[in-house]
Structures are given as C-alpha cells and as structure tokens.
Design brief:
The complex is a heterodimer of chains A (about 270) and B (about 220).
Chain A (H helix, E strand, L loop, with lengths): L2 H20 L8 H8 L2 E5 L2 E2 L3 E3 L5 E2 L1 H14 L5 E5 L5 H6 L5 E7 L2 H4 L2 E3 L4 E10 L14 E5 L4 H8 L4 E5 L2 H9 L5 E5 H10 L3 E18 L3 H16 L2 H10 L10
Parallel strand pairs in A: 1-5, 1-6, 9-10, 9-11
Antiparallel strand pairs in A: 2-3, 3-4, 6-12, 7-12, 8-11, 8-12
Chain B lengths: L11 H40 L4 H15 L3 H14 L6 H27 L2 H9 L4 H31 L11 H12 L2 H33 L1
Helix pairs in contact in B: 1-2, 1-4, 1-7, 1-8, 2-4, 3-4, 4-6, 5-6, 6-8, 7-8
The chains are: A alpha/beta (about 270), B mainly alpha (about 220).
Amino acid sequence: MSMGRRGILWVTLVAVAAWLGGAGPAEAQSTLEVVKKRGKLVAGVKTDFPPFGYVDAAGKNLGFDVDVAHLFAKALFNDDQQLELVAVTSGNRIPFLQSGKIDIIIATVTVTDERRLVVEFSAPYFLSGSLLLVPKASPVNSLDDLAGKTVAVVQGAIQDKDVEQLQPKANRVKFGKVSEAVLAVKGGRADAYAHDDILVLTLAKENSDLRAAGKPFIPRPYGIAVRKGDTGFIKWVDGELAKMKKDGTYDRLWKKYFADVEGQLVKP
Amino acid sequence: MTSGPTAYSFEWAAIWRGLPYLIEGAGLTVLISVVAMVLAVLLGLVLAALSQVPGRWAQRLVRAYIEAFRNTPLLIQIFIVYFGLPQLGFRLSPFLSGLSALVLYAAAYNAETFRAGLEAVPRGQHDAAASIGLSPLQAMRHVIVPQAVRISFPALGNNLVSLVKNSSLVSTIGMVELMFVANDISFNNFRTFEIYGAAAALYVILVLGLTRLLRLAEVRLARAS
C-alpha cells in the first residue's frame, strides 16, 4: 500500500470518528404530534406471547396488548384501525423504538431501572412474576431443583439476569424467541424455561406435555414504553390507561384474557 | 417510516466495556469456523470425487446432496439438526449441531466448486496421463487433482469467507459466538449501533485474516506446480 492510500484511509477513519463523536442530542420532537399528523399509530407488539400478544391461525394479531393498541388508536383517531402493528421480541423491541421503527412498545415490557435509563415508562398495567415451564414428568418444582441443570431463557428478557442471580449453579441457554425456548424444553435441550408467569401458565395450558412449576418469583410491573424524553406522549398514555381503569375497560380486558389463570397470578 | 428517532449520541465507552466479551465470542466463531472449514473442504473433495465416478448412481447421489443443501436456507438446516433431530431421538450437543449444519451446507458449495475445477482440467491432461502409463486413479491423484485444486482455489476462498459469516447463524441455537454476544450485550445496554458496529469490525478482521492466509496458500500452490 502506498503512503498516499494509507493517508486517505487515516483521514477517512478520523473523519468518521469525529462525526460519530460529535453526534450530539438534537431537539426531541413529540411523537404524539407526529402520530396525529400521520394519521396512524405504529405500535410494537409481541406475536409469540399469549395472552398479551399472539397471532391466530389466520395471522391476525390478538391479545391484551393488541387490544390496548387498538384502544389507543381509537382514542387518537376515533377509529381503532388507524394502527399498524409491528412484531417485536424481547431483544429487539427497545432498539425498534430507539430507531424510530415504532412509536410505542406495548409488548410486556417489565419495568427495570436499566430500562428506565433508555425509555419512558407508563404507569404499571400488569404485575408479573416468573415461573418455570417444564416437561410434565419433570422432577423440577422450583429454582432450587435447577442446580447443575440447563435453563432456557429468552435473550433480552429479565429472567436471564434473574436466573443468574437466584440460581447461579444453573446453566442458562438463551434463545431469540419464545417458540424456540419452548422447543428446547420439548426436545430435552433444556430442563426448564423461565419466563413471565402469565406466559408460562398459558403455554402450560396449551401444551399438554408441559406444566408450570414453582411459585412466581420477583413480581415486577409491566409498563408501556415510549422514547426517552418523550414526556408529552407518556403523559397521554398514562391518561388513557387511567381512563380504561376507571370506565371498566381494563377489567373487561382482564376477564377476557386472564380469567382462567387468574387464581395463579400475582394481583396488582 | 415513523417519526424520526430521538437524538443519538455515540458512546465509545459501550464498545470498550463490551469488547472483552465480543472477543471471547469471536474465539468461538474462529473455532467453529476453522473446524467447519477443514471438514467442509474434506467432505466437498469426497463428494466431488464421487461425482467423477463412472456410473449414474454416484453422480445422482452427489447431485441430490448438493441440491438438497444448497437450495435450503442454512437456518432451517441448523434448526432441523438442533430442534428437529432430538424429537427423533437423536440429540447432538449445541456445538455439534451448529458445526454439522455448517459443514453439510458448506460442503455442498465446496463440492460444486471442486467439481467445476475437476471438469475445467482439459481432456488432454487425462489422455496425457494415460499415455505415460498412469492408471485412472494415479492420474487423478498426480495430474488432475492438483490442477483442479488450483483452478478452484479462488472460488473456494469465497466459500470459506461465506462460512465464517454464516457461522453467525448458530447464535440462534444458543452458541455463545460473536453474533450471540453482540445480541446479548445490545439487548441489555441498548447501544445497538456501537455493539453491532464493533461486532462487524471484528468479522472484518477475521475475514481479512482468512483472505490473507488463503492468498499465501494460493501463492504457494502456484509455486509448487
């Protein structure tokens, strides 16, 4: 390589570094205004997380979170169809929000201090502990039984850290999606799969070869999330949630989606 | 598509904090890639040789193998080996699952590359080898294969570079390699651009190292003949 080419390479690298280093915060715009102008709310929801976000055989999005998204669209435009649903996972939902692919995350986001640093959270709208999903015949009945065993978790979900802390002797294996973690338990790849209680209970109900094990551990609230600094939008979300709780909509959704596992959930 | 993302400020510190883990992950990327390369080259050679055996059955078998593995996504092959086979009572470790899928897939490409190399050796070379009294097998070994390897070398290099990059797919079955570590870090600190950027840079370094080695090997091969 000649000196000339090497020189150009260095100039380019320095320029890129300077550009990246200098990219400072710009004026944050209110998403609420943008959404109203656009005439459509773009919400990130789960597709593999019954009963909060899932799809039926026809590919239609269903679930508690999906209903909330429709109610938000209705509140904004008086039409619950002025809504675009984007499928997200535990791992990619916050990057999707940060990169502007979605306006809002309504996807079983557990409120944690780390996440508070990067998004604005609404008031809690659900309380979830964690449970273990195990094969029906498994001897596992609690986290204590998992020393030296393999536990599946989903990347980006809080159970990854919870299991590390509560059962450091377990070997965690991480997957990108709920369905893959379930397959890992079914195929004997993992002795248990740790995730939110409501999901585990629903999966146990839907899969006759699996059961829920343990008592719900570390209950934490779910929050709806918008971009950091977008305080106008999160206030609007909180206002809508408060209205839903007051006018009975929230109770109706609760009964619609949680009635048959209600007894096993942690009450908010 | 939606409102612009909020202001983003690049954070070098996120890269420095993540780098030790990324490098650890790159170690497994190198390990699985190198083992897969060796096995995929050997399997590719065997398949290419089989494709030259007179008679239709061997050729058909090789053809079927190549079409099956080249025409299906690698991700599906990885999932079949890792999630599917255990349901049939055949359970490989995650490493072996990922490795075997990578080898089977890359071998299909290598076999095609070597076959093309073998068939590019002029017909006259076979005749010349026969005329000096070499058996067909000897002719293969001493005359045809060395030339075929040289002809197919650049294309083989491309296959191997692809193999390194494709190894990122084993992150989906919980193998803690470079891509997996990048996901793991960015899903927790949300510095997506920094962490995937750093991971991309590490892949570039790995692939540049590989292409340099291949270049050296190519020069050697040319000199040896």
